[in-house]
Amino acid sequence: MKYVIVVGVMLSFEGMASEIASLETISVFGQNPLFSEHNTTSIIGSTQTISAEELAKSNALSLSQHMKNRLTSVHINDVQNNPFQPDVQYRGFTASPLLGLPQGISLYLNGIRFNEPFGNTVNWDLIPFAALESVALYSGSNPSFGQNTLGGALDMRVKNGFTFERNELDLQIASFGQRQATLQSGGNNGPWGYYVAINRLSEDGWRDFSNSDLKQLLTTLTYQGDTHHLELFVAANDNALTGNGAVPEDLQAAEGYDAVYTYPDKTENDHRMFALSSESALGNGFTLRANSYYRRNNIDTTNGDDSDYEECEFNNVVTLCEEEDDDVERVEFVGYAPEISFSDISDLDPDDIDGTLNQSATENKSYGLAVQLMHSKKTTYFEHEWVIGGGVDHADIDFISDTEFGILHNSTPEDDRSVSPTGFFDSESQVRLGVKTYEHYLYSGYSLRFGERWLFSISGRYNDSKISMHDRIDVGEGSLNGEHHFNRFNPALGVQYSISPDWDVSLSYSESSRMPSPAELSCADEDDPCKLPNGFVADPPLNKVVAKTIEASVDYHTDANTLTATLYRTKSVDDIIFQQAGVTQSEGYFINVDKTNRQGAELSYLYQQDNLVLGASYNYLDATFESEFITFSPNNPLGGGRQVEPGDTIPGQPQHQVKMHTSWTLNEVLTLGAEWLLSSSSYYRGDEANENKKLPSYAVANVYANYQVSESVQLSVRIDNAFDRQYNTFGTYGEPDEVLEDVHPEIDEAFFVGPGSPRRVTANVQVQF
């Protein structure tokens, strides 16, 4: 097995470690994926944490929903309109399940990287919400979290038999046909502990034809001795999700808020994950940590859409053709000779073939090993900590895609605009791609606390990665074959000064980078755009993305109050964006943009005292392009080929957000809570030049209540979007008349939106036994 070297870093530190060889007495200054616990402060950037208790009290549907309502600078784009397939935005960077988006946030589950290797995508449905023990969102370009940490990192830890010692059954029903059952069991006999979580959820979805089904299993087996800690972690998912995407604004007015444009748009995730982690106190302040893992995720997608193919005649024979740049190209069918026409193989009328089913199957297999040695020491005058580590990550990826000709049912108002398969496939659209990715990394960092006031940190990581791509259909010129190599050293440093026991100020600088994903490298030719996630072509290479973040913050903290004010700026070089280049939103190609800038301010306050919790935050985001380029955007209402100037706002990002939440425990049995979110307007995707109207601002309120019937039984109710507001979190451009001209000829404007969920009422009963 051949690997490429990657080198990486540990960052900030906060706390101290004893020289005594006992796991219970070891703490750390800072954080990286191998650390077993989350700290509430960090020298490099800022940290927002969520506990298992907070997650349970909120009764939120998913982790991303809770982050949207509570965490500063987090925003959701409802592109797919499935609650388990959100585009999560943080400070202008994205973690999304969609291949057509450049990813800029890294995710870790129990220290294991959770971004998919093919496109750095994030499948939020694989995260077992009930099994989470703690979640930490780290800001900035923190290189300790490896590649893709351009804007932040999300680190998630699951429960074990020492943090969860009971049996618990949670039964839930909700609006839109949602039914959920979750069983948790955990315990220990001293040194050995176990934990098991089983979850099953099904729902019809609030939009038409949008049912989903989730099956999740997670278990841990833990050994915890005086000086050694060992944990085996196993997770499995079998999920089927339907998210029917953006809809023309005028179609909502004509058919209702729950209308869909075309369908189906399905994703199936079959996921398995195994991980083994260890931690040993070696004595004299030394701690050794290691983990190894294997992940396999099979992702199948089916997307029903309208068609670029039309009926034509060649040599007096009726067949199908594709028009490209005024050239008409005859379709060749999979499994048939090139000269075979559609009328030779089917009794269907070619004029009725007005839909397509774009299908893909991705098998991601990834495995790796990481090792870290840390030393902590305290003397009379200072505390210091250093860490050195490294690891290997490897992925084998098989990607296949096909375009099947279909029949779009859109002739009458009673038709549902579904696409039926015909069994015939376009030969030119076939992709069979094998990919291998290799990474080796080493990292090192040092932190020093001098006296009671000063804390310094310096660290660095060198990344060296390789992507090997093998086209299983074409060879030679024009094929997808290629070898791509990327490397870079990323530094970070920070300083914190304690003005008093209650006040801290900190300043940090960090750099991170990411190599273009295999999906992006295979779809970067403006002369031959792809139909994501289906079509890939031989492309010019893309450059790696480099992000540099400077961040300053002031923190005030007492037993009851926490106040934080932050200023930050992240400059990215060779940022990768997706250029829409066809009538469908998924057709296009990736390009490097020379410079982008994301800067902003954050202010948050939290009060916690006895039976009352009050929280509020405000964030300002100025996310802009800082270099000129032409955005293709063929469906832009003003026409394609729009000129983007430095200072134009990156679409999909609200400049202002305000969030508030409260939780009030009235007595020993009743707790009431509320959340409120205000989001300002944002530009439609495809309007990078900022020339058209914006999505309007919106505000949403949620309320919830928990009632403790007895020591072992709790009843809960939650109402999301309590005032049933209709609002849109995402916008893009399309050609509605391609599908709707026969049934809604009046609908011809290009504005498509991703609507937010209407009022959702959830009730559940929790039983401990």
Automatic annotation (TrEMBL):
Q: Which GO terms describe its cellular component?
A: cell outer membrane
> Residue limits of the TonB-dependent receptor-like beta-barrel domain?
240-721
Classification via Gene3D superfamilies: TonB-dependent receptor, beta-barrel domain, TonB-dependent receptor, plug domain
Q: What Pfam families does the record point to?
A: Plug, TonB_dep_Rec_b-barrel
TonB-dependent receptor plug domain location: 43-153
Q: Does the keyword Metal-binding apply?
A: no
Q: What is its main location?
A: membrane
The record's subcellular locations are: Cell outer membrane
Highest taxon of source: Bacteria
How this chain sits in the membrane, per its record, is:
Multi-pass membrane protein
- Please provide the Gene Ontology terms (biological process) for this protein: siderophore transmembrane transport
Q: Per UniProt, which keywords does this protein have?
A: Cell outer membrane, Membrane, Receptor, TonB box, Transmembrane, Transmembrane beta strand, Transport
> Which InterPro entries does UniProt cross-reference here?
Beta-barrel_TonB, Beta-barrel_TonB_sf, Plug_dom, Plug_dom_sf, TonB-dep_rcpt-like
Q: Which GO terms describe its molecular function?
A: siderophore uptake transmembrane transporter activity
What does the similarity note say?
A: Belongs to the TonB-dependent receptor family.
| PANTHER family linked | BLL6183 PROTEIN, TONB-DEPENDENT OUTER MEMBRANE RECEPTOR
Q: What is this protein called?
A: TonB-dependent receptor
Q: Which organism is it from?
A: Paraglaciecola chathamensis S18K6
